[in-house]
Design goal:
The complex is a heterodimer of chains A (786) and B (300).
Chain A (H helix, E strand, L loop, with lengths): L2 H25 L7 E9 L10 E4 L4 E4 L5 E7 L2 E8 L6 E7 L4 E8 L4 E2 L4 E2 L17 E4 L1 H6 L8 H5 L5 E2 L9 E2 L7 E5 L2 E3 L17 E7 L13 E7 L8 E7 L2 E10 L3 E10 L5 H4 L5 E16 L2 E17 L9 E20 L2 E18 L4 E21 L2 E20 L2 E7 L2 E14 L3 E14 L2 E15 L4 E12 L1 E4 L7 E4 L7 E14 L3 E18 L11 E2 L5 E3 L6 E17 L4 E16 L16 E10 H8 L11 E10 L3 E2 L5 E4 L9 E4 L7 E2 L3 E10 L1 E3 L2 E10 L7 E7 L6 E6 L4 E9 L1
Chain B lengths: L1 H14 L17 E7 L9 E4 L15 E9 L4 E4 L1 E2 L10 E2 L12 E10 L2 E10 L6 E5 L3 E3 L12 E6 L6 E8 L18 H6 L1 H4 L2 E6 L7 E6 L8 E10 L1 H9 L18 E2 L1 E18 L1
Parallel strand pairs in B: 1-17, 10-17
Antiparallel strand pairs in B: 1-2, 3-4, 3-7, 5-6, 7-8, 8-16, 9-11, 11-14, 12-13, 12-15, 15-17
Classes of the chains: A mainly beta (786), B mainly beta (300).
């Protein structure tokens, strides 16, 4: 690396730090006329900070909610004694009197007591989500899933975050074999996956049964399906923010789980009085069981784990260190009878690390700084053909985010990010070599205003993000405005609208078994862009139901899709000493196009009671248009499904029996519970073969083969997809440990959902065969908590 | 309330069982003329096959492959002269090939030629047009590493050794198709003891066409003269005995067809289009190539 580049980089970092600190310095003086009450809200039992807890002073009609580190600030509090109330669903209401006289800044550390209310009428737990009336931070298109929800969903073998999210309206799977998320017409590469602040590039393990997120180690999952704030950038469709458990600050705690496919464990331990540590480890053992018994089953396994430490450095400083690593290995040996074996091996791994430093500059200024590292590597080796393929993307980011609480009705957030990317794809084969390397630098500045021009009624969140992407032979500048409005029509219902411009500078070559390959914008492809427009209405229906409906329109420009006929387009840029071609650009790899997605989604959710769950439906229409595909005519991409419906439920069997017997006064949750998930969706678009023709491929080829000539891309649809999954679990105690054995039955109706269609011309009468996805898959498992 | 619960249960079971109806149908069928033709210097214009495509729900009958009223001509673009092609009349449909037998049309290296075809399919008159420029002279097989090898010998590192060809390149072709065709291909000389696949005598006889003509290519070779090497992997040799190895230095049109025609089905089973270089109502390929061949032997 040249000294000039290093100087440029150091200059960029210095510029970032100066900007953030100078802004903090100027605004630190901007305290309002009244006093402030600030602090952290935590769970008394384990010390975990609580996000979204309501903090208010009734007589003054002022209130706020805690941020993602559990921090809150009430500003402009006049001198005097005031009753402070802190509430969070699933916890006992905390009340105390605060006194502000000489001391203008009061700092509190509030501990909430977990409270499980169990009656036939209600069941409220610590991780329950409130409705419209309970929460003031309801952002458009944002969904939270509690770990409890994820565990309750019947799935293949064990609970999984991504598969759980696929049960929400607007989020679709491509097939049973993929846990990738297709959000509102977008593709998985358009989703920003964050794990403790670090970006993760391929969050799926092979065959899609598992994602890289271990459910037992997760504290919070937040999915923003669009219209996300200016603090997020670099993706077109959605943001999935996963936060691991900080760790129990009071006592040792652990979970062990075993299923037919994997074993895992999550442990939490306090670090003295100052912090906590959590860690998890998971490994599949398919290769040691079925793979060992059946030669036809390839050896495949993965392992992953995380380690997270949280330390309070002082009353105003905290440091969180988080590491995650996972590795997949697939080893395939061909089944020939020769002693001399041949086969191929694929492996890939994710590694992330993040350091988050939290500092309270003043009660009004709260800051977070991240240093993150993320690396994805894959390797594919096929010795017989001399092929050795390596792919990697490395992301080192430095990010700062500050929140300034100007007044009760105005909060300003701003920040900056510098990201160094290194993407590499190399493939050695007998007749040449591909070696594509890109090392772009991405910088971004953003600012957001959270303003309540009509307190309690209208909230305006406006922001702008400026990004510069400096790649080889191309520099891209982009200004991305974002705007969101929430208008509360009453205590229990509100409307939301949002719009925003989003840009993406990384592109993906999708693959089926092996992990996807990432490239960055460069001389041959620009950044992709999408503009989101959305409007929604949310309301509480009675005390237990919440209803939301949202409309969206997403307009894509410079959309890049992998060119299936790329072999005809690639060009060698140089040659080795044997005159073998070396290809070191992505020329011809992607096709530029346009697109749009529009739709309406409805969600009816019940968080409390004997039966809880949600009903979700979405009507969506997605169309892409590429000059080089379908003769330029618009077509529905493979993931487009016109209609999708999910019914997800969890039934407390004891409560249900009491309800049936009308024993309304009884309370207490029984040991047995049942979960169900019905998914129905319009069939996926497919491209019909168009017609068949016979041809030989060379003048000396005496055979004729049957080939296809598709003419209309994705012009037909597969039969509808439907699946019913059930689960049954029992909760009990054994030697003081909580024991939860469970049974899951995936696709209990054994419906043969179509994956694709095969045409067979080997007999005189052509045959069509539906290639199905997963049949009925029962599985059992056991979770032990101690 | 209970009524709704029962309705949801019933709906769930009704939807979540069974299998969706699936029929052989294709609403995207469009009649096309199928062209197969490679012009070769020294060989002339022969072996051009003109057929038609068929709906996927129809059985493939040889008798229905030939369009009616076929008018085909080659135009020498150096002088604009047109030469009408004639179809050989034989019993076998596969052998009904178009050719020009006159001595006044020579296919030369570097020359450009156009093929125009008009024919009737299902009552519609279809027209198609394609152009090829023959690669420039210079291509030949310079050497073959081994005239014979036992099946899949291993070197001192335990890696399989391959037959290898050195070729002198055509200055204007950067795509080389290599084909391997055993002179005798039966279930008796099939290489059963291979590491790739388990085959029985019956399966070999059933799938003989899959094994007895194999091909590979190298692409993106440098423009201009020079030497390149082609390794013949053991995937392409399934029988003991002698092989004819034919190498084609192809033009871009022929190369595009070879690169894409059998890769129209993606990993998830969905189809996409082949990169045809034929205008109008045609699919297939009309290209040109320089040809050279060599023989080798796989020993038991």
């Amino acid at each position: 690396m040249t000294g000039r580049l290093w100087r440029g980089r150091i200059h960029s970092i210095r510029w970032l730090v100066c900007l953030l600190l100078s802004a903090a310095g100027t605004t630190a003086e901007a305290d309002g006329a009244g006093g402030t009450v600030s602090g952290f809200v935590r769970d008394r039992a384990d010390g975990e900070v609580l996000m979204g807890a309501s903090v208010f002073i009734g007589p003054l009609q002022i209130g706020t909610t805690t941020n993602d580190r559990g921090y809150f600030l009430l500003g402009d509090v006049p001198a005097g004694r005031w009753p402070l109330t802190v509430s969070f669903i699933g916890y006992q209401i905390h009340q105390q009197v605060v006194e502000l006289n000489q001391e203008k800044a009061l700092r509190l550390d509030i501990l909430l007591q977990d409270q499980i209310i169990e009656t036939v009428e209600t069941l409220v737990r610590a991780d329950s989500l409130g409705g419209v009336g309970d929460r003031s931070d309801l952002r458009i298109s944002t969904v939270h899933l509690a770990p409890r929800d994820i565990h309750r969903l019947p799935q293949v073998a064990e609970a999984d975050v991504l598969r759980s999210l696929q049960s929400l309206p607007g989020v679709l799977p491509l097939s049973d074999f993929s846990s990738a998320l297709y959000v509102r017409g977008g593709t998985p590469d358009q989703n920003l996956y964050l794990v403790d602040g670090a970006e993760i590039y391929n969050p799926e393990h092979a065959l899609g049964i598992f994602s890289t997120f271990n459910t037992d180690a997760i504290k919070r999952v937040e999915l923003s399906k669009g219209g996300f704030g200016a603090e997020y950038g670099g993706r077109l469709s959605s943001v999935l923010d996963v936060v691991h458990l900080d760790g129990n600050r009071r006592q040792f705690e652990g979970v062990m789980a075993i299923s037919l496919l994997s074993a895992k464990s999550t442990l939490q331990v306090p670090l003295g009085q100052k912090g906590s540590l959590s860690g998890s480890l998971r490994r599949t053992y398919f290769d040691r069981t079925v793979g060992r018994w059946l030669d036809s089953v390839p050896d495949y396994y993965f392992y992953d784990g995380h380690l997270k430490a949280h330390v309070d450095l002082g009353p105003s400083d905290a440091l969180t260190l988080s590491f995650f690593a996972g590795r997949d290995v697939l080893d395939v040996t061909f089944s020939g009878p020769s002693q001399d074996e041949s086969g191929y091996a694929v492996s890939w791994r994710n590694q992330t690390g993040s350091a988050r430093y939290t500092h309270v500059f003043s009660p009004r200024i709260f800051a977070n700084f991240w240093l993150t590292h993320s690396r994805f590597l894959s390797n594919f080796a096929f010795d017989e053909s001399g092929m050795d393929e390596r792919s990697s993307i490395t992301d080192v980011s430095l990010r700062g985010h500050l929140e300034f609480f100007h007044s009760q009705h105005l909060r300003v957030e701003w920040g900056a990010e510098v990201k160094k990317l290194a993407a590499r794809f190399s493939q050695d084969f007998l007749s040449g070599r591909i070696d594509v390397r890109d090392r772009p630098l991405h910088g971004a500045l953003y600012g957001t205003i959270d303003w309540q021009p009509l307190p309690g009624r209208l909230t305006l969140r406006g922001g702008v993000r400026y990004g510069r992407f400096a790649a080889r032979e191309r520099t891209l500048d982009q200004v991305e405005p974002r705007l969101a409005l929430t208008y509360r029509l009453g205590e229990t219902h509100l409307i939301k609208v949002a719009t925003g411009v989003h840009t993406q500078y990384v592109h993906r070559v999708p693959r089926f078994v092996a992990a996807d390959i990432w490239t960055t914008a460069n001389a041959f492809q620009r950044g992709a862009q999408a503009v989101h427009y959305m409007a929604g209405y949310a309301r509480d229906v009675g005390r237990r139901w919440q209803f939301e409906v949202e409309f969206f329109y997403k307009d894509y420009d410079s959309l890049y899709q992998f060119n299936q006929n790329y072999l005809t387009e690639v060009r060698a840029t140089r040659y080795d000493e044997l005159d073998r071609p070396i290809i070191d650009t992505t020329q011809g790899l992607f096709l530029p196009g346009r697109g749009h997605a529009t739709g309406v989604e409805a969600l009816l959710r019940k968080e409390r009671g004997v039966v809880s769950g949600w009903l979700g439906g979405a009507l969506t229409r997605t169309r892409y248009a590429f000059d080089a595909i379908n003769r330029g005519r618009p077509f529905a991409p493979r993931h487009d499904r016109t209609f999708a419906f999910n019914a997800v439920g969890h039934v407390d069997m004891g409560g249900a029996l009491r309800w049936i017997r009308r024993q309304l006064s009884s309370s207490g949750q029984g040991p047995w519970s049942m979960g169900f998930h019905l998914f129905y969706a319009t069939g996926q678009p497919i491209t019909e073969p168009g017609s068949a023709y016979v041809a030989s491929i060379a003048p000396n080829d005496a055979n004729v083969g049957v080939f296809y000539a598709p003419t209309r891309i994705n012009g037909a649809r597969l039969p509808y997809y439907a699946r019913l999954d059930l689960s049954l679990e029992w909760r009990g105690e054994l030697a003081g440990w909580r024991v939860v054995p469970y049974l899951q039955i995936f696709n209990i109706g054994n419906r043969r959902n179509a994956w694709y269609v095969e045409y067979d011309f080997s007999s005189s009468q052509p045959k069509v065969e539906q290639v199905g996805m997963f049949p009925i898959l029962p599985s059992v498992g056991l979770r032990v908590q101690f | 309330m209970a009524r709704y619960v029962y309705m949801l249960c019933g709906l769930s079971l009704w939807l979540g069982c069974g299998e969706g109806p699936l029929a052989v149908s294709d609403t995207s069928y469009e009649p096309k003329l199928v062209i197969e033709g490679v012009l070769r210097p020294g060989v002339g214009v022969e072996g051009i096959r003109i057929t038609r495509n068929l709906r996927v729900d129809e059985p493939i009958r040889s008798s229905e492959l030939i369009p009616s009223d076929v008018r085909a001509a080659i135009v020498d673009l150096s002088n604009g002269q047109s030469f009408v092609l004639k179809m050989r009349s034989t019993e076998r449909v596969e052998d009904r090939l178009f050719s020009y037998e006159g001595a006044d049309l020579r296919i030369v290296e570097g020359g450009s030629y156009a093929l125009s075809v008009e024919a009737t399919v299902e009552g519609q008159t279809l027209r198609t047009y394609a152009v090829t420029t023959v690669p420039e002279a210079g291509f030949r097989i310079v050497s073959l590493s081994d005239e014979e090898l036992p099946y899949r010998p291993l070197d001192e590192r335990g890696e399989p050794m391959h037959f290898s060809l050195d070729i002198a390149r055509s200055p204007s072709s950067n795509f080389y198709l290599i084909t391997a065709r055993p002179r005798v291909a039966t279930s008796a000389n099939f290489i059963y003891d291979n590491p790739f696949t388990q085959q029985s005598r019956a399966s070999v006889e059933r799938d003989l066409a899959d094994f007895n003509f194999r091909w590979d290519w190298i692409q993106n070779t440098p423009s201009g003269p020079g030497l390149s090497t082609i390794k013949l992997l053991w995937f392409y040799l399934w029988f003991y005995g002698e092989y004819d190895i034919v190498v084609y230095a192809a033009d871009e049109q022929y190369a595009r067809f070879i690169q894409t025609h059998d890769r129209v089905q993606e990993a998830d089973g969905n189809f996409h289009s082949t990169a045809f270089s034929i205008e109008g109502d045609g699919i297939g390929y009309f290209g040109s190539a320089l040809v050279d061949s060599v023989q080798l032997r796989v020993l038991r």
